[in-house]
UniProtKB/TrEMBL annotation, chain A:
Coiled coil location: none
Gene, per the UniProt record: metW
UniProt-recorded name of the protein: Methionine biosynthesis protein MetW
InterPro entries for this protein: Methionine_synth_MetW, SAM-dependent_MTases_sf
SUPFAM superfamilies (UniProt xref): S-adenosyl-L-methionine-dependent methyltransferases (SSF53335)
Native source organism of the sequence: Salinispirillum sp. LH 10-3-1
């Protein structure tokens, strides 16, 4: 399993009801079902990914995340997960609010645009950053709302969202001591475990 | 198969005895864990797959999905398809003899609700020794039966596939059905439903009803692709004869249908569609109604289906999510309109294949574990 998914799986309590937004082939949900006894539902737009989910026995509904979340009831899931897709939303702030309306808690992973290499691209090369994690040209990238860790945390403050836990890792999703000295400069991916402030 | 145990109906009436005609494909395995029930739509019947004879021009109505190596793989599964009560292809219906009077039932035949059909299907399953279905599968009106199965007999349905269906009809849908019924009832050859005794049948009315229905089953796009505005004779006639290919096609379809389908059955089937609303027993709350279901669900809709639009399928899906059921939903991009469920459209067929296979594998695994 992808290491970021493993990091997410570790934070999910046994028996939780999980909604996985942009669930892909259902890897996380299948893992949670087999090892954490959780019941989950995936949301995915790509038909081929949905077929993979069906083969794995992972329930999934085909919806556009930008428009299709309205039908989910308030607090109908324990945890809503969105892995590396928030930056692809038309209105990430609204998606974030939706996640914490549907779930009591949420787990969001975001690629960090404040990573030193992104800064190097802009500062020294004068070009839009590209990396293994963000391999697209500026004109055809699905990542239309990139942010830095600081930006994301500002948004959380604005929306009265409490960050329960933050894990910052490199592109291999390893956590290193060094990264935590300057997470917004050295971290490539951050995993946020969040909830609404009471 | 003949049943002598009276069947109490939703309407309050009782069908004292009846006959059900069915076909099976494939072989029931030793632990009877591979049985799939196919529920048919308005004009379908027991002949769902294959050819009856070498002279047959058309195979069963769902031949694209049922057969060796197909989505509903008859090498793997035991498939049962029947003609519903009230139908006109062998099961007891308006053209049968009413044992109480010795005359043809005609319009006196009781109007059926979807739950009555499901009850009669459960009795057929009992008679065949099938205590639970690996899956109940149906499109359109058949999807409604599958949904009803999951509510009324939760312990007997492991998987439930509801294709191009809806939790109840809209006013627009009921409107279409009513126009179709009026066309039949107002045909001079209808004779208040006793046309057989008059040695006649409401050919025009039934034909009109089918033409209307046919339009609603296709999409604007599919009709444009098929006929465009092509002229039959190359020029406009400036009378009310057939000018356009589409007119000729609809007339042909209507006539074919009226020659092979019983008018009272058409009335009965459209009424069953109109009446279907399982949530009505639960203050209109479909999620509460589905609370008792235990099946895993697959719901599929088609992008150009305007008779049972994707939004209608999503009502079922949302209710299933609210009641915490296992559900997978797919909206398949297809130009064919409502009829798409009868075509071998790849994503749709693949999803159905994978869903059934996964449930079959899970059952086999569980059964191995239990022994």
């Amino acid at each position: 399993m992808r290491i970021d998914l493993e990091l997410i799986a570790e934070t999910i309590p046994k028996g939780a009801r999980v909604l996985d937004l942009g669930c892909g082939s259902g890897e996380l949900l299948a893992h949670l079902r087999d090892h954490h006894g959780t019941v989950g539902l995936g949301v995915e737009i790509e038909t081929d990914r949905i077929l993979d989910c069906i083969k794995q026995g992972v329930p999934v509904v085909q919806k556009d995340l930008d428009t299709g979340l309205g039908n989910f009831l308030d607090h109908s899931f324990d945890i809503v997960v969105m892995s590396q897709s928030l930056q692809q939303m038309k209105a990430p702030h609204r998606t974030l609010a939706e996640m914490l309306r549907i779930g009591r808690e949420a787990i969001v992973t975001i690629p960090n645009f404040g990573f030193w290499n992104a800064r190097r691209y802009l500062t020294f090369l004068g070009r839009m950053p590209m990396s293994k994690l963000l391999p697209y040209g500026w004109y055809d990238t699905p990542n239309i709302h990139m942010c830095t860790l600081r930006d994301f945390e500002d948004l959380c403050r604005e929306q009265n969202v409490r960050i329960k836990q933050r894990t910052v890792v490199d592109s291999q999703h390893r956590s290193r001591k060094l990264i935590n000295l300057m997470p917004n400069f050295l971290g490539e991916v951050a995993i946020y475990h969040i909830e609404n402030n009471a | 198969m003949t049943f002598d145990e009276p069947l109490p109906l939703r309407s309050g009436r009782v069908l004292e005895q009846y006959e059900l005609v069915y076909e099976t494909y494939g072989t029931l395995n030793a632990d009877k864990s591979n049985a799939i029930l196919i529920c048919h739509a308005l004009s379908g019947h027991h002949h769902a797959a294959g050819y009856h004879s070498a002279e047959d021009t058309k195979p069963g109505w769902w031949n694209d999905c049922i057969g060796p190596g197909k989505a509903i793989d008859t090498d793997r599964y035991f498939v049962l398809s029947l003609n519903n009560l009230g139908g006109c292809h062998g099961s007891t219906g308006p053209t049968s003899i009413n044992p109480a009077t010795g005359k043809i039932w005609g319009p006196d035949f009781p109007v059926f609700a979807v739950r009555d059909w499901v009850k009669s299907q459960a009795r057929l399953a009992d008679a065949l020794g099938i205590s639970s279905w690996l899956a109940v599968v149906g499109g359109s009106l058949g999807g409604m039966q599958a949904l009803r199965w999951s509510i009324d007999y939760p312990e007997r349905v492991r998987a439930c596939a509801i294709i191009a269906s809806a939790p109840k009809l809209t006013a627009q849908n009921i409107g279409f059905n009513e126009v179709a019924r009026q066309a039949i009832i107002n045909d001079p050859d209808f004779h208040e439903g006793r046309y057989i005794e008059h040695n006649a049948y409401p050919k025009q009315g039934l034909s009109l009803a089918r033409m209307l229905g046919h339009i609603t089953y296709l999409s604007d796009e599919s009709m444009r692709d098929k006929f465009g505005r092509d002229l039959r004779k190359g020029t406009l006639s400036f009378d009310y004869d057939v000018d356009f290919q589409v007119e000729s096609y609809l007339r042909y379809q209507g006539e074919q249908f009226s020659a092979n389908f019983d008018a009272n059955t058409y009335l009965l089937m459209t009424k069953a569609l109109d009446y279907f609303d399982p949530a009505a027993d639960h203050d209109g709350d479909l999620a509460r109604c589905l609370a008792q279901a235990t099946a895993r669900f697959l719901v599929i809709s088609f992008s150009t289906d305007w008779r049972f639009a994707p939004a209608r399928s999503e009502e079922i899906v949302n209710a299933l999510i609210h009641s915490k059921k296992e559900v997978t939903y797919l909206e398949v991009d297809a130009p064919q309109g409502h009829d798409a469920f009868l075509f071998p459209i790849k994503p749709y067929v693949n999803a159905l294949t994978a869903f059934l296979a996964r449930n079959f594998d899970d059952v086999q695994r569980e059964n191995r574990g239990a022994h």
